[in-house]
Amino acid sequence: MSAGRPPPEESATEEFSVLIKALREADQRLEDLTQGEVDTVADREGRRFVLRRAQDQLRNAEAAKQTAIFDALPAHIALIDTRGFIISVNEAWRRFAAANALQHPNFGIGLNYFEVCACARGREASEAHHVAEAIRSVLSGALKQFSTEYTCDAPNTQCWFLLTVTPVSYTHLDVYKRQ
Question: Is residue 152 part of a domain?
Fold first, then answer.
């Protein structure tokens, strides 16, 4: 290595910072030149570039569409991350939670589903522990899917549910990070 030159990793990090700054400045300049009225620009070779504001609008529109679909589904759905935290729930879940006095703000978002299962006591405890392990197996890829029926006593009635666990790829669903 030459004396006075930063290590390659440091040099690359510095170059990334310079390039990112240049991209931001170029994007801002394009926004200024087009007065925010243009979504896409093209260079002399015809390569098109979607401006950041337009990208944000497209992402927001797609997120709104996917949220509407998610909320229109009649099943009670909760999305959990790989650590077991509930990150989003749909409208059917929220209605059921409200009707049955769920004792957690925001309809359980932020709760760790694995911890809830681990805290189960009484006749449903072993089933809850089995469900948590099955969910972990689906999330790790050891199982493709898992389904089980279980009972859940609501304040005024006994309910039966079909729990189905399927993995979701977040490369396509970053929209559910809306909370």
Answer: yes
Residue 135 and residue 114 in contact, taking contact as beta carbons nearer than 8 Å: yes
Residue 152, phi then psi, degrees to nearest 5: -145, 110
Q: Is residue 2 part of a domain?
A: no
pTM score over 0.85: no
The DSSP annotation for 83-127 comes to TSBEEEE-HHHHHHHHHTT-SSGGGGTT-BHHHHHHT--GGGHHH
Structural domain count of the chain: 2
Q: Is the pLDDT of residue 57 over 90?
A: no
Task: State CA 6 to chain mean position distance.
Answer: 38
Domain assignment present for residue 160? The answer is: yes
Overall size of the chain counted in residues:
179
Domain that holds residue 150: 73-176
Q: 94 and 23, same structural domain? A: no
Q: Could you tell me if 27 and 81 lie in one domain?
A: no
pLDDT, residue 148, reads 92
According to DSSP, residue 112 is labeled B
Instruction: Please write the tens of the pLDDT for every residue from 131-147.
Output: 999 999 999 999 999 99
